[in-house]
Amino acid sequence: MKVRRSNRLVDMTRYLLEHPRTLVSLKFFSERYGSAKSSISEDLSIIKHTFQTWGEGRLKTIPGASGGAVLTPYYSKENAQAAIEDLVKEVSDDSRFLPGGYVYLSDLIGRPDILHKVGQLIATQYVDKDVDVVMTVETKGIPIVQAAAMYMNKPFVIVRNSSHITEGPTVSVNYVSGSVKRIKKMELSRRTLSAGANVVIVDDFLKGGGTLNGMGSLIKEFDANLVGMTVLAESTNSGKRLVNDCTSLVKVDAEEDGDKKTINARPGNFMETVFGKEN
Amino acid sequence: MKVRRSNRLVDMTRYLLEHPRTLVSLKFFSERYGSAKSSISEDLSIIKHTFQTWGEGRLKTIPGASGGAVLTPYYSKENAQAAIEDLVKEVSDDSRFLPGGYVYLSDLIGRPDILHKVGQLIATQYVDKDVDVVMTVETKGIPIVQAAAMYMNKPFVIVRNSSHITEGPTVSVNYVSGSVKRIKKMELSRRTLSAGANVVIVDDFLKGGGTLNGMGSLIKEFDANLVGMTVLAESTNSGKRLVNDCTSLVKVDAEEDGDKKTINARPGNFMETVFGKEN
């Protein structure tokens, strides 16, 4: 079968998007389409140029016999800004007010359109970092970790709050839940994380920072390395923090003044952190 | 800006894949690329033909002034078969044995390549169904529900095992956990599911069927409709079941004979259910 360029471009785009940050060889595409490697190289230039133009990712081509292409999805500054603004708009809704300074976000972290943005934003932050695994703690961090992991094409691990019989041997740490000042326990299955692994931590919401801090301790217990921490939303009126250096996509405060309950959302520190101070 | 066909095809493919099961108008693409609607229509034919050829989805084009295109990702029978076989191969590993007839699957549900397959398989099953929301129960069902929801472009909801302060008002049901014969409680935030919604239930593992059954009760409490149930893996040596009509991608038994612990994995009933009896 010989496949025409127009069809090749469609299928290659789909294939590369399903295998981000992975070297796909010229040979693979050449055999898949019955086309010369030189034609495939031209196709890849077109794909590279298109992703660059629309600010959706970069295609790195590796020359030579064992060469190929690696698609790394990321947002241009302009697209990242627009995605953050969309998130702020979605969070800015007084009906999200919950008692105790919490904010209802469960609907957002169950929406594919939101998760695409969150995932691609986090992948953008770590675009030039060596990442082996993305970590979160159950339950609401899971959609965030999965969205990020899909764009980065890295496995993710879920830290659990208590013992589950289906996990096999675990490593556990105690941590202080910053917002309620209680000692809690979190644990991770022994076989899910290797020594020396480079780990990105993500979560849905940063308040006191206790759980992020706990995950940091767990990473140390496994002799792994912390690359960075990113949360969907951080609360800014929660007093002293147990973590520094956490990136947030959105900042949000739940304020109560008598019967008046308001949600105040604005961009987090993502743009400064990722694209520099001038933002 | 006028964009050439080759670049349009790449960007349209990316855009459509990020917005599956959504009508994208000719007008949108025409304005995005500064191209005539007739050219966009020709592009869409090429995309349609390509997805069909590779068995990765169908593109439905809607003619007329308000027309456009809807991309529905699904697997051809051949691709579905290959994906199921890959899953069986991954599960067939005696080191996955856990006490009590359980099987260690946490690594698989944290791998993007596996989740792509699981998500597209489940989307294939419900390709012609009217689905409003996909449901699961915490914790290990979440990666499955999210993978399916991303391919179907539908929101997902997570049933919780206990009260969490951040959720607002909830509806709860008691259910019998089939494998341990205990009464447990599960609950769902009141605002996450509407009456009349069409719901697909997914989970990672079917043993006794208690949790699936509980989610079925919860759907009734919300006056919503159950469209179908699908699990990644079902255990076949767990005796009497509390649910019928559940589709499984993989069947797996954890067997213990003295010191010898074996995992026996084979295809579930997915292929018969989705593609008919001749499989």
- Coarse structural class of chain A: alpha/beta
Number of helices of chain A: 8
The tally of structural domains of chain A comes to 2
Amount of helix of chain A: 25-40%
Low-confidence stretches of chain A: none
> Oligomeric form of this entry?
homodimer
- Global geometry of chain A: globular
Name of the top-level CATH class of the largest domain in chain A: Alpha Beta
H and E string of chain A:
HEHHEEHEEHEHEEEEHEEEH
Strand order of the largest sheet of chain A: 7-6-10-11-12-13
Strand content of chain A: 25-35%
Query: According to CATH, what is the topology of the largest domain in chain A?
Result: Rossmann fold
Find the count of extended strands of chain A (DSSP E, 2+ residues): 13
Mean pLDDT of chain A: 92
Radius of gyration of chain A: 21 Å
Proper CATH architecture of the largest domain in chain A? 3-Layer(aba) Sandwich
Protein chain pair with the most extensive contact, residues per chain? A-B, 57 and 57 residues
End-to-end gap of chain A = 51 Å
The largest β sheet of chain A comes out as:
6 strands, mixed
In short:
Two copies of one chain form a homodimer. Chain A is globular, with a radius of gyration of 21 Å. Chain A is of the alpha/beta class and 279 residues long.
Q: Can you describe this structure?
A:
2 copies of one chain form a homodimer. Chain A has 279 residues and is α/β, with parallel strands linked by helices. Chain A folds into 2 domains: 5-73, Arc Repressor Mutant, subunit A; 77-275, 3-Layer(aba) Sandwich (Rossmann fold). The first copy, chain A, has helices at 5-18, 26-33, 37-53, 77-91, 112-125, 142-152, 210-221, 270-275, and strands at 24-25, 57-62, 68-73, 97-98, 102-103, 133-137, 156-159, 170-177, 182-189, 198-206, 225-235, 246-257, 260-267. The first copy, chain A, has a 6-stranded mixed sheet with strand order 7-6-10-11-12-13, with helices on both faces. In chain A, a hairpin with a 5-residue loop joins β2 (57-62) and β3. In chain A, α1 crosses α3 (37-53), α4 (77-91) packs across α5 (112-125) and α5 (112-125) crosses α6 (142-152). At the A-B interface, α1, α3, β5, α5 and α6 of A face α1, α3, β5, α5 and α6 of B.
